[in-house]
Design a protein that fits this description.
This protein has about 180 residues and is an alpha/beta fold. Helix content is about 35%, strand content about 15%. The chain has a five-stranded parallel beta sheet, with helices on both faces. Helix 1 links the parallel strand 1 and strand 2.
């Protein structure tokens, strides 16, 4: 039976590299892992005043996380951090206090950028934000994809063999990590 993992895409852009990377990871995932590539278009802004009667979009997102066997963040870097929409989703999913929907879920982080640094700072910010509200974060292999724009064709298909090898190595390791922490 395959483990279901929510792959959260940290960008709203239709042609986002994060979405392309998440889709490529879903295609490369071994049979033991099924990625549910999830965009954040419908998640309203977190407001603690709404916690007593959370909006349906919050409830649906939290339930999706709770039913999963793990979470994989695929993040761009915006102004040396994660995107606002991703931080909002983390806030929505981690509340109410003490009842984080991420809690206990094996977690992975894949950062990507068309630039030279591979969004390493965004990945490090996630590593700072997630402890205490998530499960264990996979430490190795780390993955910071740089110059990612050249890895896909105009249809969004992964065409770079070196990037494919890195993604395959990562998703295989993540599948083993999820398996280990779902026994």
């Amino acid at each position: 039976m395959a483990h279901h993992v929510v792959a959260i895409v940290g960008s709203l852009r239709k042609e986002s590299f994060s979405l392309k990377v998440a889709n490529a990871l879903a295609e490369l995932a071994p049979a033991a892992l099924k990625l549910d590539v999830t965009t954040l278009h419908g998640i309203s802004f977190f407001n603690q005043d709404l916690e007593a009667t959370p909006p349906p979009d919050w409830v649906a997102f939290r339930e999706k996380l709770q039913k999963s066997n793990g979470v994989l963040f695929v993040t761009p870097e915006y102004n040396r951090s994660i995107s606002g929409v991703l931080k909002n989703a983390i806030d929505v999913g981690s509340r109410p206090y003490g009842k984080s929907s991420f809690l206990g879920k094996p977690t992975g982080i894949v950062s990507n950028s068309p630039g030279a640094l591979g969004a390493v700072i965004a990945a490090k910010h996630l590593q700072n934000i997630l402890p205490g509200i998530s499960g264990l974060i996979m430490g190795q292999p780390e993955i910071y994809l740089n110059a990612i724009g050249a890895a896909f064709d105009d249809k969004g298909q992964l065409t770079s063999e070196p990037v494919q090898k890195v993604l395959q190595q990562y998703i295989d390791a993540f599948a083993a990590f999820v398996e280990k922490h779902n026994k």
